[in-house]
Amino acid sequence: MKLFTIFGDPVSHSRSPLMHNHVFRTLRIDACYTRSQLTDGSKLREVFFAKALSGANITVPHKEAAYEACDEIRGLANKIGAVNTIINEDGRLIGYNTDADGFLAAIQSFGLLRNALIIGAGGTARALATVLYQNKIEPVILNRSSNRLEYFIENSYQAYSWETFVPDTYDLIINTTSAGLSDDLLPLNGSLLTELFSHARCAIDVIYGKETPFLREVKNAKLPFKDGSDMLLEQGVLANYLFINGAVSTDTIRPIMQKSFLY
Ligand code: NDP
């Protein structure tokens, strides 16, 4: 039996085991997907081999550590510098990033967008900035601290800390912070958020499965919005395709995985 897991901290909220196990069961693939709480990201590679894994997903806060843990990085993950999917290819760890394309698929329903404000500057923000830029939607980054802005500035994106930010008009406002994940915090000062929403066309929180304080504010502003469920589905479909080595198409995996959301 092939073994897969999701590494994260926290990880108990993750729906990935449900999604992937449902696909494995339905397609009669001899595989099992579990959750792995990992506090120290630098131990990821060691734990991966100790668990004899065939592959893994990586969530908050270890995506940059996962990038470092791999022997080879493929596709957009090279540019992003963060990995959310690892495949064990004959003892070599191959890193991918399926968050970027998953997010792009999720925002298609918002229609044509000119620019987007990304709140947060972690691994997810990097993935989103890269894929938005590639698709001609100008990303602007706003983070609580300046520590993680270097990557964005080096890549010529507009990037601000709370201290340096001067608000403008953005079509899409995105919460990529973990504020609201296991606490009840807004990712930004409430009145600034209200001002940003008053000029925006739509908003998305990449957190899924709960109404975050960010989403409550979006609802008050009466903007079209999404939580992170569609992104979760799409990144999961792409990761599962990699896990099963392309044995069936993503169009076959998607409706099966979507059914797991009903449980
Ligand atoms: P990281 O740990 O890499 O980054 C977290 C970011 O959140 C940092 O910029 C940090 O700012 C900011 N932050 C944390 N707490 C607060 C706070 N209280 N107020 C303001 N900013 C805060 O996380 P990831 O990028 O890996 O993941 C972020 C979120 O995205 C998680 O909630 C994760 O579950 C979700 N996600 C959802 C996906 C989906 O499929 N729907 C896919 C991928 C991620 P600072 O630098 O100042 O510390």
Would you kindly provide a written description of the structure presented here, covering whatever features stand out?
By secondary structure, the chain is α/β, with parallel strands linked by helices. The chain folds into 2 domains: 2-97 and 229-262, Rossmann fold; 101-226, NAD(P)-binding Rossmann-like Domain (Rossmann fold). It is built from 11 helices and 12 strands. It has a 6-stranded mixed beta sheet with strand order 2-1-3-5-6-4, with helices on both faces. Helix 8 links the parallel strand 10 (172-175) and strand 11. Helix 5 (99-106) packs across helix 10 (229-243). 44% of the residues are buried. The structure holds NADPH dihydro-nicotinamide-adenine-dinucleotide phosphate (NDP).
Topology (SSEs and partners):
Elements: E1 2-8, H1 16-26, E2 31-37, H2 44-50, E3 55-58, H3 63-69, E4 72-73, H4 77-80, E5 85-89, E6 92-96, H5 99-106, E7 115-119, H6 123-134, E8 138-143, H7 150-154, E9 158-161, E10 172-175, H8 190-199, E11 202-205, H9 213-220, E12 225-226, H10 229-243, H11 250-259
Parallel strand pairs: 1-2, 1-3, 4-6, 7-8, 7-10, 8-9, 10-11, 11-12
Antiparallel strand pairs: 3-5, 5-6
The structure holds NADPH dihydro-nicotinamide-adenine-dinucleotide phosphate (NDP).
